[in-house]
UniProtKB/TrEMBL annotation, chain A:
Signal peptide: none annotated. InterPro entries: ABC_transp_permease, BCAA_transport_permease. GO terms for biological process: amino acid transport. The chain crosses the membrane at residues 12-29, 57-79, 91-116, 142-167, 188-208, 269-290. It is found in: Cell membrane. CDD domains: TM_PBP1_LivH_like. This is Amino acid/amide ABC transporter membrane protein 1 (HAAT family). It is a multi-pass membrane protein. One of its GO terms (cellular component) is plasma membrane.
UniProtKB/TrEMBL annotation, chain B:
Gene3D superfamilies: P-loop containing nucleotide triphosphate hydrolases (3.40.50.300). SMART domains: AAA. GO terms for biological process: L-amino acid transport. InterPro entries: AAA+_ATPase, ABC_transporter-like_ATP-bd, ABC_transporter-like_CS, BCAA_Transport_ATP-bd_LivF, P-loop_NTPase. It comes from Prauserella shujinwangii. The keyword NAD does not apply. This is Amino acid/amide ABC transporter ATP-binding protein 2 (HAAT family). Residues 2-240 form the ABC transporter domain. Belongs to the ABC transporter superfamily. CDD domains: ABC_TM1139_LivF_branched.
């Protein structure tokens, strides 16, 4: 039982990271109809920026986290402003190719600036743990879960209650009608890129503070968050969070029981679990767990 | 208040839809814009509100003025802020969110919370149906209620000029009357109205002036009462030419049209 709970906890922490990244995917997909393949690149960029703030400039870790989210948001919004704005109204396929291009530009850029070697971000958590109820909780894992919960809450409050949040929702629903209300689509697109990049950066710095440390391949986690987004329903923020948690739990639990139950399947079976889960759920619900069932007048 | 002069609009660089249209909406009046499908009515509205861009349309000639100000090819948000609100063809309400949120979205360009609340109260006052269904998802409203919501949403921007694109589309006669009365009421509260309609009787009944648009040109204009009495208008738009029945074979519309556009 203890092992199971311990695995669940690890899964929640991992799932929180997935949820943050998947939420970023959903924000951009919802407002612009484009899947942003550069999310992993932005995540890595955010993590390295966090490293620079925390280690080289030696600001407090909390400030470093804040700064890396802000600067990533700036990068996201700038990219939208300079490149993607010219693509408004063009087929989504072309824009998706551009985001793939951005991913491949970001990766060498990061290695050129920060190099290939493994880095450790200075952070107050390290490998400290607390014990409660007979379980061992990693401090970083607790913070990851807590921060994700806070960010997700803020995210939903923003979309539910602010005027800009409302503008973003209606632009996602009907861009032309939104324009006719005087809502600036440019502002909405730029904001969604900023939000997505900030979410990715937060996920990145939280991961970099963990036992894995910081390597240029940190962005690959976005690939695992991808099934989380699709599983939850591409246009549902709540689905992204749910999908992230489910994938995280499934992956951690598989890894936990690897030697006992899945030894026949090889060592890395936990890595493929997200994709298997995605395929199964899409077979049953093609639009994902919480994807839009269209509202129609009866 | 609104004056459009010599407007020429081209879609996709090749499709010439408006060919030198001029019209004006005097302050405090209702102006009806009639015309068959494809005449360019909606395009004219898009040209005024700056919504040509998503349709790859461009104003190639002419100007649009609001009062003294030149708003030719202005940004849609700018146009709304200057006081022109539009009810789009086919309602285009935001079906996934509540009635309440739809109305709030209409007030996006305004900042003062108290003023927004005032408009909100005024809109609910004008449309008691909406007041009753404030919390329901807009997509579940009936067609008539959705049209009311679309008009209410436009009013939330507190426009000086309201552009209505076929508000009677797909509504039962009873509801058309209701929409008509509401337009009159809005006008009496001081908002000028440009009413685009297929339902010519309804539009001319309440309008002060009317314009008839055909293949991108204004072919006839004048006081609404005059248009209502006009022979050709009666035959082509009101569907009542004298008493006797006539065969379509005898209607030589081409000759008529020639005379019109001359």
């Amino acid at each position: 039982m203890t092992t199971f709970l311990q695995n669940c906890f690890a899964g929640l922490s991992l799932g929180s990271t997935y949820a943050l990244v998947a939420l970023g995917f959903v924000v951009i997909y919802k407002s612009t109809g484009v899947i942003n393949f550069a999310q992993g690149g932005l995540l890595a960029l955010g993590a390295y920026l966090g490293y620079t703030f925390s280690n080289n400039l030696a600001v407090a870790f909390a400030v470093a986290v804040l700064l890396c989210c802000l600067s990533a948001a700036l990068v996201g919004a700038t990219f939208e402003r300079i490149v993607l704005r010219r693509m408004v109204g063009q087929p989504p396929f072309a824009v998706i190719m551009i985001t793939i291009g951005l991913l491949f530009v970001l990766e060498p850029l990061i290695t050129a600036v920060w190099g290939f070697e493994h880095k450790q971000v200075d952070n107050p958590w390290n490998i400290r743990t607390v014990e409660a109820f007979g379980l061992v909780f990693g401090v970083r894992d607790l913070w990851t879960i807590g921060l994700t919960a806070a960010v997700v809450l803020a995210f939903f409050l923003f979309f539910r209650f602010t005027s800009l949040g409302l503008a973003m929702r209606v632009t996602a629903f009907d861009p032309e009608a939104a324009l006719a209300q005087g809502i600036s689509a440019r502002k909405v697109y730029a904001t969604s890129w900023a939000i997505a990049a900030a979410l990715a950066a937060l996920a990145g710095i939280l991961m970099a503070a963990g036992p894995g440390g910081l390597t240029p391949s940190i962005g690959f986690i976005a690939l695992a968050a991808f099934p989380a987004m699709i599983l939850g329903g591409m246009d549902s923020p709540a689905g992204a969070v749910l999908g992230g948690l489910i994938i995280g739990l499934a992956e951690a639990i598989t890894r936990g029981y690897q030697d006992r139950l899945f030894s026949w399947a090889g060592d890395n079976v936990s890595v493929i679990v997200p994709y298997l889960l995605m395929i199964v759920i899409l077979l049953i619900r093609p639009y994902g767990l919480l994807g839009t069932k269209e509202v129609r007048r009866i | 208040m609104l004056s459009v002069s010599n407007l020429e609009v081209v879609y996709d660089d090749v499709v010439l839809v408006l060919r030198g249209v001029s019209l004006s909406v005097p302050s405090g009046e209702i102006v009806a814009l009639l015309g068959a499908n494809g005449a360019g009515k909606t395009t004219l509205l898009r040209a005024v509100t700056g919504l040509l861009v998503p349709h790859r349309g461009k104003i190639t000639k002419g100007t649009v003025h609001l009062g003294e100000e030149d708003i030719t090819s202005a940004d849609p948000a700018e146009v709304v802020r200057k006081g022109i609100a539009q009810v789009m063809e086919g309602r285009r309400i935001f079906a996934e969110i509540t009635v309440d949120e739809n109305l709030r979205a209409g007030a996006y360009t305004r900042r003062s919370r108290t003023e927004i609340n005032e408009s909100y109260a005024r809109v609910l006052d004008l449309f008691p149906v909406l007041a009753r269904r404030r919390r329901s998802v807009a997509g579940y409203l009936s067609g008539g209620e959705q049209q009311m919501l679309a008009i209410g949403r436009a009013l939330m921007a507190q426009p000086r000029l309201l552009l209505l694109d076929e508000p009677s589309l797909g509504l039962a006669p009873k509801l058309v009357e209701q929409v008509r009365d509401i337009v009159v009421q809005i006008n009496q509260q001081g908002t000028s109205v440009l009413l685009v309609e297929q339902n010519a009787v309804m539009a001319l009944e309440i309008a002060h002036r009317g314009y008839v648009l055909e293949t991108g040109k204004v072919v006839k204009d004048g006081p609404a009462a005059e248009l209502l009495a006009d022979e050709d208008i009666r035959e082509f738009y009101l569907g009542s030419a004298g008493g006797e029945r006539r065969s379509f074979a005898e209607v030589k519309s081409y000759r008529r049209k020639k005379r019109w556009s001359a």
